Amino acid sequence: MSDPTIVLNATAIQRALTRIAHEINERNDVSSDVVLVGIQSGGVPLAERLAGLLGGIWGQPVPSGALDVSMHRDDLDQRAAPTVHPTVIPFDVTGKTVVLVDDVLFSGRTIRAAMDALNDFGRPQKIQLAVLVDRGHRDLPIKADFVGKNVPTSLAQKIRVRVGEPGAEDEVALERNPHRLDSAADY
Amino acid sequence: MPWHRQHLLDIESLTAEEILTVLDTARAFKAVGERAIKKVPALRGKTVVNLFVEPSTRTRTSFELSEQRLSADIINFSADASSLKKGETLKDTAKNLEALNIDFIIIRHSAAGAAHFLSRVLNAHVINAGDGAHEHPTQALLDAFTIRERKGRIEGLNVTILGDILFSRVARSNIWALTKLGAKVTLCGPATLVPRTFEAMGCRVTHHLDDAIRDADIIHLLRIQHERQRKTMFPSINEYTQLFGLNKARLAQTKPDSLIMHPGPINRGVEIDSDIADSDRSLILEQVTNGIAVRMAVLFLINGGKGPQEIIPA
């Protein structure tokens, strides 16, 4: 278990994203109402990739933004302050169907924070959730609408996602988590 | 890089990396201030006391607004209204406030070291909002943020601080921050207000204005602090303006892209001429705007607990 196991390679990631794009297409009748918002930092390159794929399907550009949820987390006074990334949502979300995009769905707390953060930008008509990997262990009643791959994990493992890094193959790997502290809640 | 400090007491003890962490974090908080909804719940349920034992309008207002935008609850204490006037010691005042289960104390005090003292006797997070002529860390951080935003960098820039250096906590905190971040700092003003001893902090000291501003990228003006001067340090205000006041003609002899900063309140016609204070070379109002973002960032970082930043990075 100390060696990382490759869960998805670059081809499998691309295939999963293509399938998710088609599922988003199936689910949403009015394509012009759909906008994508990637959660910082892992969800942002995925949202951009999905926006490109959906743009190809719909024949029109699909807006894509980036949302940082650090200021809305529920554990801010329990651990060192998180690194805050920029939030860039260059479109109005009010009345839209926002597809939140993240790399890994775990406790669900990040998604809870993201829905809160999104409300500061407007009132979406619907929020849907797309994730590349669902690793289980939910703390909150949150479920993804679109899942690239379900990966059963133990709490002593972690999922490492690498997407869109220059000079490196896209890859999702399952590895042992050296920092695991059993008392702490996880994102 | 993760931040582990529980207080912000001075710039002197911060590393360059820590300063940059504040500046990076402040960038995200500046964006919050530009939204329709300018409030985030990061400090929800936390209580902040603004203990301003020495008068202040702009710093206190800036802290208050920062705290409100982080959803904290606020109590304001000012010098004349507080029991300090009735003979209570600072420690007792602070202890009484802490007994109300407050989480943060922002302190402005005329005695150097007041914030350090409180951080030793209280469990609450302490932020120094100016202690005597010692330090004013959030001012230096917002100045560094403003320079970095406008110039894209701080390293290698020539920054001239002009005026009453001796009595200025803003100057001291700025010198620490700027030299740590790799700027070349020049100090200028009357010899009585800019003693050579500042060279020990890594600055160049000159008493000639033209020499001080010729190669400056940033000209940082300071107000003459009459309230801190126990005796007259120069013959007259008029002479000060003649020798050290910044005006159009003098600005024209500096680099074409040099910028002017001032922590406020400005004395028009004394250290700065009205027309350049209002010109596009002046960053004075940007400093005010950035003050909110930087103070929000400091509160946000200090609020962090002792655990590791992320347990499961994915």
Give the ordered list of helices and strands of chain A.
EHEHEEHEEEE
Question: What is CATH's topology name of the largest domain in chain B?
Answer: Rossmann fold
Major sheet details of chain B: 5 strands, parallel
Name the CATH class of the largest domain in chain B. Alpha Beta
Q: How can the largest sheet of chain A be summarized?
A: 5 strands, parallel
Q: Could you give the count of β-strands of chain A?
A: 8
Gross CATH architecture of the largest domain in chain B: 3-Layer(aba) Sandwich
Number of helices of chain A: 3
**Distance between the ends of chain A:** 22 Å
What does this entry show, briefly?
In chain A, 24% of the residues lie in helices and 26% in strands.
Helix/strand layout:
The complex is a heterodimer of chains A (187) and B (314).
Chain A: E1 5-8, H1 10-27, E2 34-39, H2 43-58, E3 64-67, E4 97-105, H3 109-119, E5 126-134, E6 146-150, E7 157-162, E8 171-176
Parallel strand pairs in A: 2-3, 2-4, 4-5, 5-6
Antiparallel strand pairs in A: 1-8, 7-8
Chain B: H1 16-33, E1 47-52, H2 58-69, E2 73-78, H3 90-98, E3 104-109, H4 114-121, E4 125-131, H5 137-151, E5 158-162, H6 169-180, E6 184-188, E7 204-206, H7 209-213, E8 218-221, H8 237-244, H9 248-252, E9 259-261, H10 274-277, H11 284-303
Parallel strand pairs in B: 1-2, 1-3, 3-4, 5-6, 5-8, 6-7, 8-9
Helix pairs in contact in B: 1-5, 1-11, 2-11, 3-4, 5-6, 5-11
Give a description of the structure.
- The complex is a heterodimer of chains A (187) and B (314).
- Chain A is an alpha/beta fold and 187 residues long.
- Chain A is built from three helices and eight strands, in the order βαβαββαββββ.
- Mean pLDDT of chain A is 92; it is low at 182-187.
- In chain B, helix 2 (58-69) links the parallel strand 1 and strand 2.
- By secondary structure, chain B is an alpha/beta fold.
- In chain B, the strands form two sheets. A five-stranded parallel sheet of chain B has the order 7-6-5-8-9.
- In chain B, helix 1 packs across helix 5, helix 3 crosses helix 4 and helix 5 packs across helix 11.
- Chain B has helices at residues 16-33, 58-69, 90-98, 114-121, 137-151, 169-180, 209-213, 237-244, 248-252, 274-277, 284-303; strands at residues 47-52, 73-78, 104-109, 125-131, 158-162, 184-188, 204-206, 218-221, 259-261.
- Chain B starts with 15 loop residues before the first helix and ends in an 11-residue tail after the last helix.
- Chain B folds into two domains: 16-135 and 289-303, Aspartate/ornithine carbamoyltransferase (Rossmann fold), CATH 3.40.50; 137-283, Rossmann fold (3-Layer(aba) Sandwich), CATH 3.40.50.
- At the A-B interface, strand 7 of A face helix 1 and helix 11 of B.
